[in-house]
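Figure S4 source data
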Amino acid sequence: MKVSLLIRRLSIPEFTTNAPVLVDVYITAMGYSPTIRDTRIAVWRRNSQNPGFTSVCALLDDQVVGVAYGFYGSPDHWWQHQLRRGLRHKGGPTTAELEIVQNYFEVAEVHVMPGFQGHGIGRKMMFELLREQQRAHAILSTPEVDQESNNAFGLYRSLGFYDLLRSFRFDGDLRDFAVLTVELPLKETKTH
């Protein structure tokens, strides 16, 4: 039997209906406690109402093995307030940074199930997610890891993402994050 990978855009109704399955991918991929499931489902459904909302999933023989979604950045969003705080703290924002935070697509979530990571699924989802976006940049955050030695950093760097903030702590989270950005549209680059 041949295994068939499909990267599929989801309509907002499809996303909200399937949010429990999609959140399960997130919880498994991140190693989070299942106790956050109901809260995350509600948050993801709320996020689907943001302007510019776009979502994709990766299906492997009809099994969901990946999910990614995002929406237009907005001065009204908590996340942009956090970005601006971080940029001020490091002495900015510079003119270039200000232009980025005024015109970006926020990649809110990108997750691939363990066992399927490192096989190009995240890359394919990112290209589909960011295809035809009407913003000049995409921005995302990812937990810091020593020497960027994980699949997530490898993916983002291969797509051309560069540092906007490093070792940044979002309010209410004790972990350090890298905030990365890239100009849109994505350019096809060779993988390592």
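Figure S5 source data
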Amino acid sequence: MDPHAERAFPVSENLAPLFLLDREAVFLNHGSYGACPRPVFEAYQRWQRKLESQPVAFFDPKRGYTDNLRNARVALAGALGTTAENIVGVTNATTGLNIVIQALKLAPGDEILTTDHEYSALEKTWSYVAARTGAVVKTVTVPLPLMREADFTKAVIAGMTERTRVLFLSHITSPTALLFPIEQAVAEARRRGIMTVIDGAHTPGHVPLALDAMGVDFYSGNCHKWLMAPKGSAFLYVRPEMQHLVDPLVISHGWTADGKETGAGPFGNSHFVDSLEMQGTRDPSAWLAVPDAIAFRAAHDWTEVAERCRELAWRTAMRVAALTGLAPLSAAEFSAPQMVAIPVPPVDTMWLHTELWKRFNIEIPVHRFQNHHLVRLSVQGYNTEAEMDLLVDALKTLLKL
């Protein structure tokens, strides 16, 4: 079976010709780093060429630099349900979350409430901050399989105490590809005066967002994953009432001593925006290409594309489940729409990952989470039914199903 057979179909049916991915690979791992469409990558390169053609003019706030950064914020804010004053571009979600986490004034005994499904880099960030401040990280267990919103909300709220200062949740989890129904937990945290910090690494372009309406205090998400912007593009959102709490990890041109008091930055934006955006010499081309990624999605009716991908991802997961007899980690509504962690029988996960690549050219994550052995499937507009057939057949062969 040729896994690329359907790639000869019209672009309206499959968008593989518009991507730069290696045609020899069966790429089922969009969730890790994304994949940038050719037109968006070309826009990214145009910004880089503009930078190199006249670096002094490019970085001059009076000759368009500030306006270019703001234009990207305006375009993205419209897709996130907020305004340009509430977001700022960062290189990745981990950086955005570190800016917030390391700025919070925590004291000994303060509790950070989180779940057992969080991304390891952020678990390390909280451990680092807890060691410095004397705060305590408290982890709640999310019941699996996750079948009802109430089960998630009950577990999280049960972990809240009078010492809870921060609620930290993934919106879509990395290890288990679950779409957490965070809204009720966030609302309860706000009612109790608990700050909410949300890891949205996988959400922009994957699920609709309305950040202002959601009521979160801090939210960071990647643009290079499901929004399909170039690598190095992400955002940090901070609710206006909380922006005075945030300082950059690096103090540079956009910071002023009195900016927090006045709210004003030296480059015509708020202190929050200027202090984070104006960080000296760096290549912002990936961030400046975010509007092109948004336009690409609109031009190709990505709502319809995403729905086809959602159906294909879940149908493939159910095919594997029928072979293994292992139940999914959640009901379909709590699985990330285009990404699903599929349980497989106990196996050496590194061996399975390597064999899938060596024998079938399948690029897909395989890992262990608690007592679950998981193959995390991502389906994007360039993937095909034939590739799903190949994955199912490969797992059947390697696992002797």
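Residues 302-324 form the longest helix (23 residues). The mean pLDDT is 95.
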